[in-house]
Amino acid sequence: MVRPSSSLRFLRHPPQLTGASGVFGTFGALRVIPALVTHPNPFNPTTTIKYQLPKSSFVTLKVYDILGREVRTLVDERERAGYYSFTFSASDLASGVYFYRLQAGSFVQVRKLMILK
Fold this sequence. Notes:
0% of the residues lie in helices and 56% in strands. The chain has strands at 7-11, 25-27, 30-32, 38-39, 46-53, 57-65, 70-79, 82-89, 96-104, 107-115. Mean pLDDT is 75; it is low at 1-35.
């Protein structure tokens, strides 16, 4: 389920990344961009989350508050192999620390987001 305030798009070509974020790691059958490249972070009111899937997988991308309560489901669907860029709008969330969790198959990665208003 993708909320109207957010957008997900499939990228035909790999994102142009520099530094350590340009090195792809392999985790079992899935490869993802380390740290799930989030730019900018901290942010107000939108940020972009990028990731790569080497094969088709069921993907969930969720945002949680500091107490572990789910505040938003960004992606909850099967996606084909490729590079993805997701624009997340947090205009309706309070300033603070949040976490986002990407699960693709058996792979899980959690990263921190900071919203500053």
